[in-house]
Amino acid sequence: CARGPVAGSTVKLFPGATGVGSAGLCGADITAGHVDVTAASLGADGVKTLTATVIDAAANTSVASGGLAVTLDSAAPAAPTLALTAGSDSGTVGDGITNDGTPTIRVTLAGAGAAAPVAGDTVKLYSGATEAGSAVLSGADITAGYVAVTTTPLGSDGVKTLTAPVTDAAAKPSAAAAGQAATHDPAAPTA
User: Fold this and answer.
1) pLDDT tens sequence across 89-104
2) How far apart are the first and last CA of the chain?
3) Which of 11, 60, 87, 140 is deepest in the core (most CB within 10 A)?
4) DSSP string, 31-69
């Protein structure tokens, strides 16, 4: 009959042919049915297929486990840039003045390679420290190079500093877009 791992055996972790971690098994691991192995390094970003073997005290090595595909993603997306959309820019185009209490902000995406945003990443728009809108990026947004986010009400008149980090699937946020000043001025001048 087949014999399972026993205390004193060693589990080795492989992302290919080279081992990147190992752990000795103790009675508690056997009882729990698992052991945690910390990898030294998995190399460059990308998909890695991890397998494990068990080596007993007599140096007999088990057949490798089934593969576990994991994606290594260590790069945060690049910071975007912000501007009022033409429909929300009620002053001179580009002056950052709007009479729209819930303006739409064009979040222009940036970055290439590992720092490029991808479909499924999230843009959160902030007015100061308060979240004022968000969008999950679609393939169409990536192709267009931007996403339009309509804010929640910005409150009273005055300058609002808007920022918008992009957060990827690995929960790594980009640096926030440089603060875009938008002046909310809904009142018409009096004569």
Assistant:
1) 887 777 888 888 899 9
2) 97
3) 11
4) HHT------S---SSEEEEEEEEEE-TT--BPPPPPPEE
